[in-house]
Amino acid sequence: MRVPVFLDRDGVINRDRDDYVKSLEEWKPFPGAVASIVRLCSAGHPVVVITNQSAIGRNYCTEACVRDIHSHLTELVRDAGGALSGIYYCPHRPDEGCACRKPETGMVDAARSDLDLPAGGYIVGDAESDMELGRRAGLKTILVLTGRGSDQLGIMESGGLPAPWRVAGDISEAVEIIISDSG
I need a surface site. Which of 7, 65, 124, 136 has the fewest CB within 10 A? Predict the structure, then answer.
């Protein structure tokens, strides 16, 4: 089994919104995102989506709505010839102090346990919290410049925070990096 690839959702797979993605109608995948996920699957990588969804805890949307979005994403990937190994989300607000909200490692730990995934792998995200999760979980970190990525990179650089392992323009470029590195 090839090492797993953990993907953030909003800002990586689909367009993010300042007011949260609250419905299937608001969920808009980036061009090439589904094909990129399928490419990872075809290369033998288990692909797991891990996403903070505090809109649930903030009562901006329901858990059923988030599950509908994830079912739709799963269908799109399946219809294109791939298969997501899993989707994990944290419904909690930042002030709740849970073990699953990124940068905590709860979602990665659960995926590794549930799916019998090997140690190591990659995380593709658009936020410093994704990169910190990756460092804590022993993953190679790839920051995409879509979503909040450009702003977050500036914050990391100006704040003296650790740099990501790699920076990519979007998920398609991140997948190229992973395929090349893991080949």
Answer: 136
- Write the pLDDT tens digit of every residue in 117-141: 999 999 999 999 999 999 999 999 9
Distance CA 112, CA 131 (A): 18
CATH superfamily of 5-182: HAD superfamily/HAD-like (3.40.50.1000)
Q: Delimit the domains of the chain by residue range.
A: 5-182
pTM, to two decimals: 0.97
What amino acid positions are annotated as catalytic residues? 8, 10
Quick check: 66 and 89 in contact, CB under 8 A?
A: yes
Q: Is 110 exposed, middle or buried (0-12, 13-18, 19+ CB in 10 A)?
A: middle
Contacts of 128 (CB under 8 A, 6+ apart): 152, 155, 156, 161
